[in-house]
Write a structure and sequence with these properties.
It contains 12 helices and 8 strands. By secondary structure, the chain is of the alpha/beta class. An 8-stranded mixed sheet has the order 3-4-2-5-1-6-7-8, sandwiched between helices. Magnesium ion binds next to α1. The site of magnesium ion (MG) has 4 residues, from α1.
């Protein structure tokens, strides 16, 4: 049975997509079968996995509107080592179209049920909002991975996300929990980042992942080659951290 995780944070530019594609590549590297679901109309996870979002014949949009199955719409990224259910700008329209439909927040859950046996992990890259799209992700997930930078306002933004997750947990998906907070773009030379990191651990305890993802330029360069950093430069500090994070996730699901 596949374990499904949302990579979510309503702030943009915090490292959701980087975490999604690199965790996926790291998991593939340690032998896990992975599906990445791109739930962001920007399609960055699609492109960053080496799939051209402009050339998609079928996408997550068709799956949400039930005109295609996941099997039909998914593509395999040979280079990245995992499957991708891609997204492009068309998905922005789904937000409006879904509102009119029944079971509108459970569409992804229903669609993913049919590929449950094909994967060990399904990773959902959420858009930077707490929208109907994100809600679809949260409704089908076993857990949420929250990437965050250790900056002054990081904790403040977190409370909105935590409240949304509590509501979804209470009303729509009793399985849902925050699996963990992932410290990303971390620079240990910056005192404030160390302070916020300590604060996070004090508040959230073992909900903070042991692995820390450093700020590493190779991770930022990789998307322009259509590759996760883990594949683009496996020896880089950033790539190594994501493979370590993949191992940590494999250990975590054993105890879930
Ligand atoms: P989000 O999906 O939350 O909007 P992204 O993953 O796209 O965030 O990251 C935002 C920007 O930061 C991108 O340009 C990305 O390449 C860069 N970035 C993300 N993580 C790192 C990192 N660990 N080191 C350096 N740059 C990073
Ligand atoms: Mg993104």
């Amino acid at each position: 049975m596949a374990k499904i995780f949302c990579i979510a944070n309503q702030k943009g530019g915090v490292g959701k997509t980087t975490t999604t594609v690199n965790l996926a590549a790291g998991l593939a590297k340690v032998g896990q079968r992975v599906l990445v679901v791109d739930l962001d109309p920007q399609g960055n996870a699609t492109m960053g996995s080496g799939i051209d979002k402009r050339a998609l014949e079928l996408s997550i949009y068709d799956v949400l509107l039930e005109s295609s199955s996941v099997q039909e719409a998914k593509q395999h990224s040979e280079k990245a080592g995992y499957d991708v259910l891609g997204a492009n700008r068309e998905l922005a329209g789904a937000e409006v179209e879904l509102v009119e439909l029944e079971r509108r927040e459970r569409r992804l859950k229903a669609a993913l049920a049919s590929v449950d046996k094909d994967y060990d992990f399904v990773l959902i890259d959420c858009p930077p909002s707490l929208s109907m799209l994100t809600l679809n992700g949260l409704c089908c997930a076993h857990g949420v991975i929250v990437p965050m930078q250790c900056e002054y306002f990081a904790l403040e933004g977190l409370s909105d996300l935590v409240n949304t997750i509590k509501q979804v947990h209470a009303n729509l998906n009793a399985d849902l929990q925050i699996i963990g907070l992932l410290r990303v773009m971390f620079d240990p030379r910056i005192t404030l980042q160390n302070q916020v990191s300590d604060q996070l651990k004090a508040h959230f305890g073992d909900k903070v992942f042991d692995t820390v993802i450093p700020r590493n330029v190779r991770l930022a360069e990789a998307p322009s080659y259509g590759l996760p950093g883990v594949v683009f430069d496996p020896s880089s500090k950033g790539a190594q951290a994501f493979v370590e994070f993949a191992r940590e996730m494999v250990r975590r699901i054993e105890t879930m």
